[in-house]
Amino acid sequence: MEPIALQKTRAWTIRNIERLFGTRQLRGLSTSMVKLGLRGLGVKNFGDVSGGNEEWFLRKTLTALREPVCADIGANIGEYTLMCRKHGARKVLAFEPAPATFQTLIENTRSDPAIECIHSAVGERDGVAEFFVPERSDESPLASRDATITSFLNDPYNKISVPLIKLDDFVQARGLQLHFIKIDVEGYELEVFQGASGTIATQRPIIQFEFNSHHLYRRQNLLDFAAVLKEYALYRLASSSLIPLDPEHYLSNLFVYQNIIAIPNEMTALKAMFR
Q: Which end of the chain has the smaller Cβ count within 10 Å, N or C?
């Protein structure tokens, strides 16, 4: 056991460091250090998809899966879809509901027959969903089922109706086996999981999904995602590393941009690759 005197010395040192970094004079430095540290941990580390931490993860994962079938849900203009093909995906299903964005997706991927573009949102049911898109789609390619949680709330936007697909039904109808799923649907990731519960339970794909301020506005946290990702290990995608997450820990519930990786518990060899 550590001597009591050493324990007291350590506690005294920590308290004084806390006081020092809490002073008005060092407040700016403290804030900058916290932000820099969080970026290193994969929080608010915006950047190009290609050539960054997402490509690093995708290259290692798809190589290990050996010609997997991938679903890119919220494919936008196709950058991630093309990266899947670049790193060995045998087929990619690219789902995108926003009409103008979908046309760009078609143009960007038309030369690759292994990419199938589906003009639809993906969610908790089959049917039709209201969708909000900015009037100037050239300025913002983002779209959402809830305009109040988007970055274009104060700009002119249109409400449209788009097809809505439940992934379980789509997979069953096509007789598909999915090995990897990427989800970026502006705050409606949990609905995608709800509609894919059967696929997740039986096919056990690796999943990447975005977690950010949209989930704060929708009163969702990482515990909600852990509940539908039973027997999966959760990680945050950082710079050339995966950081294990405890859904109950406060550092796991930071409501700013980050990519969460879910790997089935039984994939021990794959998880060992990222230790």
A: N
Q: What is the pLDDT of residues 136-159, one digit of tens each?
A: 655 456 788 887 877 666 677 888
- pLDDT, one tens digit per residue, over 179-224 is 999 999 999 999 999 999 999 999 999 999 999 999 999 999 999 9
Look up the pTM and report it: 0.91
> 228-232: long-range contacts (C-beta < 8 A, 24 or more apart)?
228/190, 228/193, 228/194, 228/197, 228/200, 229/193, 229/200, 229/262, 230/201, 231/264, 231/265, 231/266, 232/207, 232/262, 232/263, 232/264, 232/265
Q: Which residues contact 63 (CB under 8 A, 6 or more apart)?
A: 87, 88
Q: How many CB atoms lie within 10 A of CB 34?
A: 11
Boundaries of every domain in the chain: 1-40, 48-273
